[in-house]
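Response to reviewer comment R2.3. The reviewers asked that we include at least one raw input/output pair. We reproduce the pair for Thioredoxin reductase here without editing.
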Amino acid sequence: MMDKYDCIVIGAGPAGLSATLTLGRARRKVALFDNGTNRNRVTHESHGFLTRDGIKPKEFKDIAVKQLESYPSVSISNETVIKVIKDVQRDLFLVNTSNNKSYITEKILLATGIQEEFPLLQIRQYYGKSLFSCPYCDGWELRDKPLAIIAENDEHIIHMTKLVFNWSKDLIVFTNGHQLSNKVRNDFESKKIKVYTEVIKNLHGDNGNLESIELESGENILRSGGFVVPSFYRPNKFAEHLNCQVDENGGIITDSAGRTTVIGIYIAGETEKAGPSSLMIAAADGNKAASSINMDITLDRF
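Raw output as returned:
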């Protein structure tokens, strides 16, 4: 007979790790599943997390896992969850993994995060080392350098350019074929921000360090780093398959405390809004969702 868990947490990013810690300290039997695909694995340093500013993502995760080992009711498995099935009759969930193993739990916390899609495939070679998506996370390290803004959507271009201008005044915007309105171009030019609307042909650099951006015309513009605006997506459809309600923007509807519209299914971190979040906020979301899980179990059993 399979062991029954109080909660299974899927995803060991900051949200999942934080939730597991809270549940372990609440003496709940919890299993944490992770397959090592968390989004920040490609970056060399993580910033903005109080007492851990500049830590390597792997070190951050290793410290968290080591601390979780202090709690005997917590187990950690490096397995990929491929399916979650709701057993309506028993009011439980069946979790299947790629290792052909199955687990039973009362509650599920989805903390699988999101992944990026870039306007140029080449960006992946530089992402996390000289090209980034979050100025709050990496703007300080790129301060005062000649930077590129690579984005294709008016709203994204305006937002990112204005934001990055706080860290460096030496900016050039690359829209990769997208045309900007005269007003936006004039606003940028008044700040001495040049705009190239040509399609980008190539990125040049060495070992992940950007050196220049080549346009279709053959012109090469020297840049030593910059910021891109990717699109984001959830790497799985667990929430949808479990009939959790989703809003018009693809976000999963919650009560703001981690509870979805399906009893027993909770969500935390970037998974909820399908948008980026800082380590600090994701960890706080995990703590909040775990508190909801613990309270619901308490009320169910008292």
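The mean pLDDT is 95. The longest strand covers residues 102-110. Further pairs are available on request from the corresponding author.
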